[in-house]
Amino acid sequence: MPKLTINGEPVELTDLDPRTPLLWVLRDSLNLTGTKFGCGIAQCGACTVHVNGTAMRSCSVAIGSLEGREVTTIEGLSPDGSHPVQKAWAQMNVPQCGYCQTGQIMSAAALIASNPEPDDDAIDSFMGGNICRCGTYPRIRAAILSAAQEARQ
Amino acid sequence: MGSSLNIGAPVTRRGFLASLAAGSLVLAARVSPASTLLAVVGQDGSDTAFEPNLWLSIDPSGAVTIVTHRSEMGTGIRTSLPMVVADELEADWARVTLRQAIGDARYGDQNTDGSRSVRQFYEVMRVAGAAARTLLERAAAEIWGVDAAECKARLHEVHHAATGRSIGFGELVARARTLEAPAEGELTFKTPAERRYVGQPVPIVDLADMVTGRATFGIDARREGQLFAVVARSPVLGAPLKSVDDTAAREVAGVVDVLTIPGYEGVHGFQPLGGVAVLANSTWAAIAGRKALKLEWGESDNDSYDSEAFEREMVATSRRAGTSWRTAGDTAAAFEAADEGSVHEADYYVPLLAHASMEPPAAVAEVTVDEDGKAIRCEAWAATQNPQAAQEQVAATLGLELADVIVNVTLLGGGFGRKSKPDYVAEAAWLSRATRRPVHVTWTREDDIRHDYYHTVAAVHMRAAVDERGMPTAWLQRSVFPPIFSTFAPGMTSPSDFELALGFTDVPYVLPNLTVESGDAPAHVRIGWLRSVAHIYHALAVCSFPDELARRAGRDPYEYLMELLGEDRLLDLEGVQYPNQGESLERYPFDVGRLKAVTKRVAQMAGWGRELPKGKGLGIACHRSFLSYYATVVEVDVDRRGALTIPKVWSVLDAGLILNPDRVRAQMEGATAFGASLALHGEITAVDGAIQQSNFHDYKVARMYDSPRAIECEIVSSEALPGGVGETGVPPFAPALCNAIAAATGVRVRRLPISKTDLRWS
After folding, report:
1. Which of B199, B451, B518, B644 has the most CB within a 10 Å radius?
2. Are B219 and B413 contacting, i.e. CB atoms less than 8 angstroms apart?
3. Taking the complete model, does pTM exceed 0.90, yes or no?
4. Residues 23..82 of A with a Cβ closer than 8 Å to B: which?
5. Fold of the domain spanning B3-202
């Protein structure tokens, strides 16, 4: 069974089929329900987490592949919602229903970590994997630009 | 500002009262158009002779608690209505806590759809806040021995200006709770200038939870010892289960049980569809177990349903005489008198659409059973727009009294009308009774797309004869669709006045010879309602057709539209069966002047009339829905290969009084993306009765890159009675986009989704 860290805590996953998607381990075994189910086939981004700092769709990552990896979920992105992306999200009142927003935030945090000055096309391309049915896209775009600016300072 | 979603203690009347600090002032209010009743409630709740639809309490520390009874699915309503109470109360918003109500008829209507929360409950909230403020001011007056008229509440304190004294709300509670509630006529309300929160962009109460992952949706609800379940349902509506081989499913690690839920009786309504449930110790194990099921389904009346053939039948029906709903002049004679060359016809079509809320339907239920396994009580936690319907359906499924069913409302990860139908809550309840454990049911995305209560498919036929200036001398419009009431009445094929009033019988143009008709169509899937409902297909036809006529006459579509709308006036709907969202036309008339005003303003904002190169174009549409007025201009950019982008959208909304302008703006932005999804991509098809789509790869919705890049919204400042907001922006988007495509390329799209039309030009 794989040993990994989740939000900095070492975790040993026992009694689980190694093919089990990380998403369901987070939600149903570890009660980390901030990571959401949206499609199960890496089409919507609601389940986005960071694996060694890279945005991954946890519905399509088998836990057997995570030996020695560091997983960060929305619960571990910052201790108190103070990550620049979370702050920008709150400042711009991005969420409507809020459901997809944890995945959006995890994607956005990975985007600005890899590209400190994303332009509109870079945002379109990177965030294209995260669906929001409420249509918060214009505010997500604005919040990413704002968070990126803050992160650079 | 705090909030709690009562995961744990439900907000029953007794539960709410018991949860408050001793010595709290509790005000109960029942406000209806006919009467207002207010009472100060003792701690045991025994002295409320009436059934209040609002609870408000202030404890001796000054903490204010408001029970909020509408479901939060993204509109911000859970925040906006309590803002009204806090404003009239002069409470400090930071000291207000919300409690989410359970489903209970005593709260009045809780079905959070139809864009009516503010319209129906603004007055309740205002009265309750003003009554509580009056009590506190009177208590202060008694303590000081002064006239109550000299005591004014301001930001959680009552002040006496003449002497400069003040007392905090908390300290006034003990005295205030001994007073009689004020009568309705004794209340005074703030003037617009005195408002503290109403009209301000107050952040939603759930914001911090939403950006940190702590927000709890139906899919996140957890009960000790719960099983996780998914259900295999018949691919064709109404097909009975013939055989089950669950041997392999039971061998899947983590699977605990496999159970057959019986199919629905009579018409499906909100009953569970029935099927085979796999219960496991995780959702994933349940999904894996379900994959291993071997099921055979029997025959259904819907086996021959083929959406392509059905489309042809519907279009044919829309071209035949139907049932008349509104007439003016003599349309037949006017068509007869017209030259053949002056007649223009168009057939519009919108396919079945799925809701695809990001959180699929999900609920957990915990049933208590007696020694014989008979249910005696059920408590559920559900992402539901309609907790009272959930209560009723669970009671019906389990054979319980309503009082023995408690439905707690979680946050909803989108709803759009799907979550007004509580079939999934009843599934969880049925499975909990069978297993004697709490059961959490999750619909996978495949379940959601294949077994939805679909937005109905529709064909709309439009026909006009025009004079030498292109203005209509005769106008016929006919709408054909399987009706929503097919979900509730067996064999229902005829549209209702309710559906036709959604943007069709109220066509607002100057039409001397007018005929509005409908045609019948049978339903072969569960038909429901989706954000803006029949307005979607009616607005496509009614807002595209004038653009066609304008272009045919070589006229500017905006100028033409304004001429077609005619003089500012209240639309004459005398003799028309026109439910008007349950409001009278005296209170909420169809004011053509307001519709024209938003149209004029949006045209100004978009710089209407400017020259654009081929491939780029502007389209305009205006529409009244949910008693509000909305106009949109879409700018489109279509390259020679037919690839389409939407650089910008402008929108103006007149919804009367606005509570929270930031959330209203968010709804306008969101409606634009929702409109883009259905206009560009949305289509559910069926072959041999089974739905062909299953997930976001084949039921596409708008993503960041194909949504409008910039959206400029304006809200009309108004003190008119509040209208709807959440749905009003959806209907005009698709026709405005189709009109823009016509301007850019000359191609007229009459059948959605647009992605099915070749937009190449040279």
Report:
1. B518
2. yes
3. yes
4. 23-24, 27-29, 31-41, 43-44, 46, 73-75, 80-81
5. Aldehyde Oxidoreductase; domain 4 (3.30.365)
